Structures are given as structure tokens and as C-alpha cells.
Amino acid sequence: MNTYHARPKSAAALLATLLFTLLAVVGRAQTSAPASPATKEEEDSSEVVTLEKLTVTTGYRSPKAIDQIPGAIKLISFEEVANTQFLTEDATEVLARTIPGYSPATQQLQNTGENLRGRVALRLFDGISQTTPLREGSRNGTFTDMDIVAQIEVINGPSASEGIGAAGGIINYISKSPTKDGSEATLRTKFFGQGYEDSMGYKVGLNYTVKKGANDLIFGTSFLKRGIFWDAHGRRMGQSGSGTTHDSDQKNLFIKAGHNFGENNSQRLTLTVSKFKIEGRGHYVEDPGNSALGITSSSKRGTPPRREVRVQRFQPVYLGLQ
Q1: pLDDT tens-digit profile of 213-261?
Q2: 3-state secondary structure of 173
Q3: Contact, 205 vs 187, CB < 8 A?
Q4: What's the gap between Cα 42 and its chain centre?
Q5: Handedness of CA 179, 210, 129, 139 (dihedral sign)
Q6: Are 93 and 152 in contact (CB under 8 A)?
Q7: What 3-state DSSP class applies to 66?
Q8: Cβ count within 10 A of residue 178
Q9: Model confidence over 255-293: pLDDT tens digits?
Q10: Coil, strand or helix: which one is 158?
Q11: Other C-beta atoms lying within 10 Å of the C-beta of residue 268
Q12: Global pTM value
């Protein structure tokens, strides 16, 4: 009897076997039971994210959606303002951290050099100008307690919608308003320092809100004590010629009452009283530096010639209609 040995499988036969197996698996997967319509709807709804509609009122008579405005607009949320407050109470520092093209904050009472893409911006508080554009004093960056600010609207580019003085744009600080019925009180305390005894400071603030139907009221008051500021080289920062915010006491009082009316409460009448005051404590005097030796100016203990009120803003009554 003749014996025949098994012939080894060629590479072509192995490749054909693998392709046949792969096609069988794919065909089996395609013939599986389709998902039910309810399952598809649940999967689609789980992937849908509803974005919050953002509106601004600066430069317009009524709120308008950002995506409908042809221009560069930045809306700084309350969360961004609150995050900046963990580091500083400077009202302009949040702009330097969140607005592209805004110059670094001077951390002084004066805001000379702080601009929006090289040009001076018009600063507003609830639509009220905080400066006199005809005679720019560069002291309009500090005008209220940041705990009362809900959001900041920034419009880039020259604009005349809010009057003159907006060569670089408009920066509008919007105060808080009650959003839910009932009353709520928030007490805020803060203690801060840089590791030096005379750098310590603290803040105590109270916000009270009440809303009933179409009527609402917010009352806010605060006291802030600042110590002297120190630089990264362990030297006290110098005293600016037009005033600084360090070594100062700051007081703020804010009251706003509102009433919504019209179709779907689309119109609003507000009455605002705001008083802000910051005063130097007079514990330090200027210690001149030496530019030839590269030594910056500093501060040393002493009594200044006179103790002055650096900034005091009082808006007795403001009646607004939107």
C-alpha cells in the first residue's frame, strides 16, 4: 500500500482561512438584534449638553445674547471673581487674569498704565461712569467691595454707546440681585498676610437679600483692613505719590431695591444707594530708592505729613429703568 504524506498548508490557504473567519464574525455582528428606539433616545439625550445663554446689557437698552453681538465681548462670571478674591481684593486684578490684552494690575490706588490693548477703557458700575472722561484722574479702579459684584462685562474696542472716554472699550461691573424667593444672609470673614507682622489684614462683610414676587432688595456692608505689602525680595513696597491701597481701611455700604413689571417681567426699575470710602492709616512714609544701584523705593515706619482720605465715592440715589 502506498502511503501519502499530508502536504503542508500554503500561506495563501492560511490567509484565505483568516479572511473567511473575519467575514463570518463581521456578518454575525451585523445580523445582531438592533437597539430599540427608546435605548437610542436615551443614548442621544445623555450626550446632549445644554449651554447657558449668556446676555449682556452694557451698550444696549435691553439684555442681548452674546452670540448676537458682532464684536469681542468677554463676560467674567461670579465664579471667576470669587476665585480671584482668594488672592487679592484688587478690583482690577480679575481683569488682568481673565481678559486678553489687559495690562497687569498696578496694585495701587491709581490705575495709570492699566489699559485695554493700549487704550484707556471706560469703567462703569451698574452702568454709572466711575470717572470724568473730560479730566482723567486715573483713580477709578477702586470704587466698591468685590463681594457685591455678580459679574463683569467687558466690550473690547472703541465705543460711544455709554458716552465718551471708551477709547479702549467698556468695563461694566454688575452688582448682585436676588434670584430666588425668600431671604438669605451671608457673612464673610477673611484673614490674610504675607508672613510679616505688619502685612496682616482682615475683612468682615455681610450681604442680605430678600425677594418676594416682583420685588427684591439687597443690602451689603463690609470693612476691610489692609497691612503693608511686601515684594518677592522681602522689602516693603513703596508709597505711590497719588496713594496706595496698602496700609488702609476700607468701608462699603450698598443698598439696591428692584421691581420687575411688564409682560413676563421684562422691564425693571431699580433704586440704588452706594457709599465707598478708603482711607490711609498713616503708619509709613516713602523710603527713596537708588536707580543707579538698581534699588527700588520702599516704605519705612513714620508719620506722613498729613493723613488724607484717598478715595471717597458716594452715590446718594440712582434710579434706573431697563
Answers
A1: 999 999 999 999 999 999 888 999 888 766 788 889 999 999 999 999 8
A2: strand
A3: yes
A4: 37
A5: negative
A6: no
A7: helix
A8: 19
A9: 999 999 888 887 888 999 999 998 888 888 888 888 888
A10: coil
A11: 18
A12: 0.74
